[in-house]
Write a structure and sequence with these properties.
This protein is α/β, with parallel strands linked by helices. About 50% of the residues lie in helices and about 10% in strands. The chain has a six-stranded parallel beta sheet, with helices on both faces. Helix 8 links the parallel strand 5 and strand 6 (about 210-215).
Length: about 220
């Protein structure tokens, strides 16, 4: 059952951040249902670059990142222009995590990376920030397990090393972004269901209890 709208959720913009396979879409769906707000999903199914990116990452890294940046910027702006509360499955800010990791590991040309960063900075001048980012903290090993379990063909070649490099990038990203946008860090494996996590995050938001780990309530003894 969809939750009743609360005045605290008026024009609320929540971003869900996390590794590949962290459960962002599932949590976004639960938050949308529990809080009665719009949900915007990551463009995956219709991403015409994704298969090429995983097949030949070095060749298609720049084109893929530009494609995703453009798609996510359009989605980000739609959330703002509609003027309604919403939750977004993966924020535009996370694209920079992937781009930086690709450059650091030699999978993106340094010149291309500089061009990407310049474009992102120019676009960010036109963006309104989310009210809060919920970070699903999932280890590279757990991320790899979930990727294998969901069996998306294009993801079959993702290595544990790739995910480990990505995780280090996320930790750096969360440390930096929390200085300008409130962050709730969530250990997904501590919660029984996405619905339970959604309730806890909702309570943490209402308490303005940011920049710490979301706590699961103690069960009655």
């Amino acid at each position: 059952m969809q939750a009743q709208r609360n005045d605290a959720f008026d024009r609320l913009f929540i971003g869900i951040a996390g590794m590949i396979g962290a459960g962002k879409s599932t949590l976004a769906t639960s938050l949308g249902r529990h809080m009665g707000i719009d949900v915007y999903y990551e463009p995956v199914e219709d991403n015409e670059y994704l298969a090429d990116f995983y097949r030949d990452t070095a060749r298609y890294s720049f084109a893929t990142q530009i494609y995703l940046l453009n798609r996510r910027f359009a989605q980000h702006q739609e959330i703002i222009w509609r003027g309604r509360s919403a939750v977004q499955d993966r924020t535009i800010y996370e694209d920079s995590v992937f781009a930086k990791m690709l450059a650091r590991t030699g999978l993106m040309d340094e010149r291309d990376y500089r061009t990407y960063v310049d474009l992102f900075r120019n676009m960010s001048n036109l963006m309104c920030r989310p009210n809060v980012i919920v970070y699903l903290d999932v280890s590279p090993e757990r991320s790899h397990e979930r990727i294998l379990a969901r069996s998306r063909g294009v993801e079959s070649g993702i290595s544990l090393q790739y995910l480990t490099d990505l995780y280090h990038g996320y930790e750096e990203f969360i440390r930096d972004i929390s200085k300008i946008i409130p962050v709730i860090r969530v250990d997904y494996d501590r919660f029984a269901t996405a619905e339970e996590m959604a309730r806890v995050i909702q309570e943490n938001f209402l308490d303005h209890d940011f920049l710490r780990e979301a706590a699961r309530p103690e069960l009655p003894r």
